[in-house]
Design brief:
InterPro entries: AB_hydrolase_1, AB_hydrolase_fold, Sec-Metab_Biosynth_Hydrolase
Radius of gyration: 22 Å
CATH topology: Rossmann fold
Distance between the termini: 49 Å
Shape: globular
Number of domains: 1
Signal peptide: 1-25
Pfam families: Abhydrolase_6
CATH class: Alpha Beta
Strand order of the largest sheet: 2-1-3-4-7-8
Number of helices: 11
Helix content: 40-55%
Keywords: Hydrolase, Signal
Largest sheet: 6 strands, parallel
Oligomer: single chain
Structural class: alpha/beta
Low-confidence stretches: 1-8, 10-30
Strand content: 5-15%
Domain AB hydrolase-1: 36-248
């Protein structure tokens, strides 16, 4: 009898604790960052994000893949901002390669609360892809970019796999080489209009076997941005060869910004 009386006295306290746990769980769920916007780089389109998209959507994230024309930086920033505007809440903005210049510029949007650079150009205001490439160490592999054709850039098809996609299946790398998207010289040479990493937290996936953006240049940019860095052995096409690692750092960013 005494135990029953004691138990009845405890029930209100237990109920209060239980209610608090539910409320905390609900708050965590409500504040978790679920909107992810993915921005591709030059020479490719958004289809390369497919595996990353599948991993994240299966985990409950709302993922938008931007299809930038890559003709001018201004247009790409505008297209990316339209994708950001379409989201229903806070956004984690992710950029690969040239996409880093795009997200550095578009990331000043108030909806963007975190940036993720995937072996990307974490640009300072005024930095362009072509200006940053020139700062790479002299002994670093040079991207096999051909002379402009009618104002557009292409990679040497014979050298595409070794420079861009060394750890991608050969047949896939060959397809990528032969389905290149013309990259506007105007986009590659345009300076970033903002450096969103100065006011937003950022994460950086650094690829140590990258022959497009030298790892030393990636270290410089990620350190300058104050990014949380994860290094991984992989090529410039890490988002295709290791989508699990790319999805993982995006989740880190979503969790990290939610905790803030």
């Amino acid at each position: 009898m005494r135990f029953q009386k004691y138990l009845w006295r405890l029930l209100p306290a237990v109920a209060l604790v239980f209610t608090g746990l539910i409320a905390r769980a609900q708050t965590t769920s409500e504040t978790a960052i679920k909107n992810i916007v993915l921005v591709h780089g030059g020479f490719v389109d958004g289809s390369g994000w497919e595996s990353v998209y599948e991993i994240l959507t299966k985990k409950g994230y709302h993922v938008t893949v931007v299809q930038n024309p890559t003709i001018s930086l201004a247009d790409d920033v505008a297209v990316t901002k339209r994708a950001i505007d379409a989201q229903d809440g806070p956004v984690i903005l992710v950029g690969h390669s040239y996409g880093g210049v795009v997200i550095s510029s578009a990331g000043d949007d108030p909806k963007v609360i975190g940036l993720v650079y995937i072996c990307a150009f974490a640009a300072e205001t005024g930095d362009s892809v072509l200006s940053l490439i020139k700062t790479a160490p002299a002994n670093a592999p040079a991207p096999p970019i051909l002379p402009p054709q009618d104002g557009f850039l292409f990679l040497d098809r014979q050298k595409f796999a070794a420079s861009f996609a060394a750890d991608v299946k050969p047949e896939n790398a060959d397809f990528m080489a032969n389905s290149q998207v013309p990259w506007g010289l105007a986009a590659a040479s345009a300076g970033a209009t903002a450096a969103a990493w100065k006011t937003k937290p950022s994460w950086y996936l650094l690829t140590t076997e990258d022959h497009m953006i030298a790892p030393e240049l990636q270290r410089f940019m990620s350190k300058r941005a104050g990014s949380k860095v994860v290094e991984i052995k992989g090529s410039h096409a890490i988002y295709i060869s290791r989508p699990d690692a790319v999805a993982s750092i995006i989740e880190l960013a979503a969790d990290g910004t939610a905790a803030r």
